[in-house]
């Protein structure tokens, strides 16, 4: 070398010094504090006016298990209805036809604007407005059709559709307009272009929020207990009406909700990762 | 005479909210509907040569359901009140006394209902009990120069008892007929305060125009009293003090 | 020139809001002719191509493609707008290649090419795939049939885009600056494919800044400026010996 | 010109032809159909078993107005609490300290995983677990502290905090890491950098979803009726428990919710536009 | 060279995962010296600068700045890690200018400069603003005090970034390819500011590909390759007459 890079002079040689790792006192104190808090909480729950044997006993009671099943399939069914409506509404909203646009906007406004609990009650009591459905001889009594199950499905699904339509719309807007033009240039009509070209690409943007909404739907079904749909919270309530163990049964329901959400959250992450994979080129 | 739609269907559809033990509840172990109303209703339907088809609903939907024809009758521990007779006709079959009760540990503190003046008392906001509390408070507290009872609304009677256990309220009120059952479930937790302050009749709610159905139900009920089924079921569900001597139609005031 | 032109543009006007993008443009293109359009940025070249393919609606004037009036049906002495499906059918006679390729990123090269014939023309997939492979060979990409666009270079993507347009068997091909988004070393492959296409007799309208390509391949060159056609003629005339001052100014700026 | 651009030949001259505007038959038919449907719906509601005079009469009843006021201020208060907690949790989640990270993740998991109705009931019934709050002489009876109002505020606010923390975190992640480094290079500590540099830039990404969540919160408050918080739906229920006009009172509540949401939605749009303005440079 | 160096780097090692980014680098920089670091992409130049400013933690070795050991406190014969606040304080003696400017986009040029003195050093805003205006004048941007970064050209942004670093009155300035993100016509202004700074006696370490600038301004040039310092000497020695084969190869590649 042309010149000494180093001109070691007044500085001490510390190469032999012992490196003392950081002690993280604050961190350990925080851990201790949190552990103490959790222990205190656990103790309070243990000695508090809560009978843990009831929690254990009812965790797998038939009524609870049946409610769990109803919660799960209703979440899936309502989500399916919501996605169908949401996609339809998003397509209408982006159509050049102002009438369809107006209908789509009105639907979104109305159903996003009213609490779901009201919508459920209105569906369930539809017979007050329409005593019969159908025409003449082919009519059915509304109350025979509008069971708690159907009312819950319609209420949850139609409400979900209003939210999903916005998610789908955002997804469709995220697709480059060049893709529409390329599709048109090979002779596709608007609907074919949407189905074959735009939707498959929009999925990447749509899937993550939809996963969130699915988790939200699992919890939303608990509201259908007001119209006697036998989901898990409703069945837990029926039990505590009979035996007065309110908190215990609420804890049972909470445990199952946490289980479902804890399964769905990583599932959603996997799905997101899958759909964002190999997307490098389209950015 | 039963209406043809019922005979052809072979069943009476009855609305029930299984949140009022021992009149109606779902057995926590089996999830089956059971209770005094259920067994009495089944016996009544059998007397009339049909089945009883129970349909679970919620409290605010019950009278609405009679109006919309979702159900034929309501048999769910419903009080026969003058205001409700505008929408339905009641076949009365049970007497209910609005009963104050408190925590067993505080029984000595509240020896008589008058001791509740100025205290916090809870009851389900969906029932006629709030009116009973107010009537009692006006007559026995305010009129006699004592502070009024403070009514605390709750979401149901189970909620009222939960709040009583927390001490959020000093006492609660519910139908006296249900107390023995509750006290059996949770021994040494609750204690009644004095005697019921007001009696109401409980009835089967039927649509106002359904004269035939009303008469058939009343006759059937009388037959059940006559053959001893009524007394046997009362006994089974610890309700003997709530028996009524004879079946009335719209006997409530 | 003789016979009916394949494309006939008559007095076309187009405004975007208050901006006058096309000012009474008239132009004929004969079958088998290769026409290059040159001009400064913003002169309306892309807009003209998009009008021919009905991605943009004209304000007035007429465009005829293969004897058919685009966008309207003639009934007596009235013009009725066509439905979306009829416009889609008319677009089948024209293929378009975009500056930014616009391949469908969720489909392989082969699927991109097969998509139109199968979905739009409803032909059997097997037959279309065989044709698509032939087309890929023609653009020199037989080995990339199963690659996704993200894994192709820009020049390869553009050649797939050309094959995709050709798969619809169009009578006319429109190219909008097909090489201007490419790295210099990739331009050659695409131009080679276009030259081969021109030699095979395809009618082509090419918007381009590649004057070398225009000189070599174009039957005619048109120079546009501010929404009008300023000069038109053989490549050697317009590029080598321009008459109009504006054309001269443009060429000296581009060549410097 | 060198050569005629045009060689007009066999093509007809259509320049004089009349342009017949598109008739949009389908569009008009759709309008008519929708108008018919809406009219039918209106008629059904008018002649159905709904007493519109009740709706008019109770729309501005004192109990309803008071419920409306409670709904509005509870939405604002719970949202404020939620934002505070959400920001704190997001900062903890992104801290290098694994303990703080763990706490933040646990909080988000627990409160996003359980239905809000359960959380409300558990807060309201806290006295079953903690009969007293505080230590020795300085303790208060939990039931005196945990009023329906406080339980609603805690339940809604803490639940909201779990959701908001994810929104804030996404906003913070959207800020270029170069900004952190530039802040450090002028001697800022992590917290100063967050406060002065990162948050102001994250706001653009945070504001739109937060606006949505605020609208959601207005409707979420209706759930607090189960713990006797006197919001608008609760007061409407109290009225219909007394007079049995269920649907009429539900319609009254629905109208007010729609009014609030119809005011908030354009307000949110304005806010979004303001915050995305002049952001060109930071992309 | 004499006296204690301002920066003394002793045997610094750095791994990123299994990748060995710095391989026992040792280097002294005297007060007032201008040192240019050159080298191929990935050779560890940026990493070395970031170690000096503690944006990256070294695995082993020591870096002394202005007589103070960075990152650790010496207690007897043990080294204790410093807290975040102490590291923030140590960073005050060094200013850093990034390749991509990293101005705060929500603040005007003036606010960008004033932010550090006011928020970190807690000095009165009025006084800092007066100083900031002087600095803006020095980098030739007095008229842009109230412009937001989005409205400044790249070269202007980089000059504001230099002023922002100078506002903290550092003893040492680090530059990481300060002109490589700029359009060619904007490079000159930034280099002019840096030359003026060098002439004013500021100690500077500059990672750069601008060999002309290095020749003109650098007291010393260091060539790095694969995480090691390969060659070091005066600009004319290293750039004009490199001894090492690797340096020769690099220079011939850059100059071609
Ligand atoms: N959809 C549109 N809305 C508004 N203005 C438009 C639109 N499309 C094009 N323009 C404007 O019309 C003018 C002509 O655009 P055009 O794209 O046809 O130019 P060009 O000759 O293709 O230029 P370039 O070489 O830059 O592609 C431009 O000034 C452009 O801004
Ligand atoms: N945070 C990091 N994580 C992993 N690898 C890193 C990280 N930072 C740098 N590297 C790697 O270390 C090596 C040296 O990087 P460095 O940025 O120091 O190179 P450089 O000499 O500045 O190159 P350039 O001229 O491209 O800026 C590179 O191979 C780089 O990929
Ligand atoms: Mg163009
Ligand atoms: Mg670098």
UniProtKB/TrEMBL annotation, chains A, D:
Q: Could you tell me which InterPro entries the record lists for this protein?
A: AA_ABC_Transporter_Permease, AA_ABC_transptr_permease_3TM, MetI-like, MetI-like_sf
Q: Which CDD domains does the entry link to? A: TM_PBP2
Give the principal location in a single coarse category. membrane
Q: Does the keyword Metal-binding apply?
A: no
The regions listed as transmembrane in this protein's record are 25-46, 67-89, 109-130, 142-163, 246-267
Per UniProt, what is the membrane topology?
Multi-pass membrane protein
Q: Does the keyword Transmembrane apply?
A: yes
Q: Which PROSITE patterns match?
A: ABC_TM1
**SUPFAM superfamilies this protein is in?**
MetI-like
- Kindly list the places in or outside the cell where this protein is found, as annotated in its UniProt entry: Cell inner membrane; Cell membrane
Q: Which UniProt keywords apply?
A: Cell membrane, Membrane, Transmembrane, Transmembrane helix, Transport
- The ABC transmembrane type-1 domain covers 68-268
Q: Tell me, how does this one assemble?
A: The HisPMQJ complex is composed of two ATP-binding proteins (HisP), two transmembrane proteins (HisM and HisQ) and a solute-binding protein (HisJ). The HisPMQ-ArgT complex is composed of two ATP-binding proteins (HisP), two transmembrane proteins (HisM and HisQ) and a solute-binding protein (ArgT).
Q: Which family does it belong to?
A: Belongs to the binding-protein-dependent transport system permease family. HisMQ subfamily.
Q: In its UniProt entry, what is this protein called?
A: Histidine/lysine/arginine/ornithine transport system permease protein HisM
Source species, please? Teichococcus aerophilus
Automatic annotation (TrEMBL), chains C, E:
Going by the UniProt record, its keywords in alphabetical order are: ATP-binding, Nucleotide-binding, Transport
Q: Which GO terms describe its molecular function?
A: ATP binding
Transferase is among the record's keywords: no
Extent of the signal sequence: none
Tell me which residues make up the ABC transporter domain. 7-251
Report which superkingdom the organism of origin falls in.
Bacteria
Q: Matching CDD domains, A to Z?
A: ABC_HisP_GlnQ
Q: State the family it belongs to.
A: Belongs to the ABC transporter superfamily.
**What protein name is recorded for this chain?**
Amino acid ABC transporter ATP-binding protein
- What species does this protein belong to? Teichococcus aerophilus
